[in-house]
Amino acid sequence: MTSHPPAALATPPAEPWLPPREVLRIYALAWLPVLLIYLVAVETDGVWARGFNLWSALHGTLRNMGPQFVLLLLLWPATGWMETRRLGAVRQVAAHAVLAVAFVVAWYGVLWGWIALESGVDAAERARNNWFIWQLEFGMLAYAAAAGGFSAYRAVQRARAEAAAAAQAQMLLARSELAALRNKLNPHFLFNTLHSILALVRKDAVRAEEALFTFSEMLRYLLDTERSGDDQVLLRDELAFTEQYLALEAIRLGDRLRVHWHVDDDLLGRSVPALSLQPLVENSIKHAFNPRSEPGTLRIDIDTADGPLRLRVADDGPGVQLPPDGALPPGTGLGLRTVARRLALRWGDAARFEVRSAPGQGFTVEMRLPT
């Protein structure tokens, strides 16, 4: 049997010697103006005496800058190696200093040997005496630009990957919270509804049949939102689901439940999070209507306020004392907290989820969704 090391201890893949094509394109474009300037500057000393010689300029540029262009590409695996080792700031500075010196020595060594092969050792020594200091400085600057560019590219790619991972995590979290809300609704609502329908069968078989049809439509809505994989639905569909929920609750509550709808029909085609309105209504049913025997009023208002889509559910129940920090009151179930969390995950501060209540003044929940 062949054993394999655990994934956490596996050796990271080796860094490729050459950068990806995108980096190579950027690298070449960054070098282009440098090479053009050097192409002119290398012939400047004799341009007035003998005229500008293009082939001589190309030769000088290739000899002086070509090795540097190639050698700097080796910084791609070198900087990648330093990042994978997660060196501290001091060790990174020390490593770059050593690499910078090694690069300058290698580049100038190639340049010196090229001149020596073409024009002899004396010419190479004269060039060294004339060029060494400013070539050394130019080489250091080129090293810093290349190393910084490669590190910056990796940092941008890493930030993009982390942002994509964070977005994916938020999407998965939102879906899991939607699934939790859907699973919470099914058993809780199933028991109460079936109990009400069973009681209705003995009194009014026609109404019982209508109630069963309404209940099946609600379950179909839940299944459709689960199968689609998207937590956004049309407002008209979410309203229909909420109306069906209230119709079934009315079987149990009877005249104690009065519902006033104020909906702008022009907004029915807008998208809203699935199972966002019904949990607000369910919260009012649970806390404002179930505990008392006298009639109560539930108001559902949907309109636009200064651009955002506003959904407001208010009851005239006993109300609660809200915490001073603006958090949801104690005893609030999974529904309100899940809806608030899903809005925050999807839109951040662009969405609003506000609760207003006080003892004896009912309970109001308002959502504002960006366009």
Automatic annotation (TrEMBL):
* One Gene Ontology MF term: protein histidine kinase activity
Keywords annotated in UniProt: Kinase, Membrane, Transferase, Transmembrane, Transmembrane helix
InterPro entries xref list: Bact_2-comp_sensor_kinase, HATPase_C_sf, HATPase_dom, His_kinase_dom, Sig_transdc_His_kin-like_C, Sig_transdc_His_kin_internal
Superkingdom field? Bacteria
Q: Give the EC number(s) listed in the UniProt record.
A: 2.7.13.3
**Residue span(s) of domain Histidine kinase:** 277-371
What is the protein name given in its UniProt record? histidine kinase
Q: List the source organism.
A: Pelomonas baiyunensis
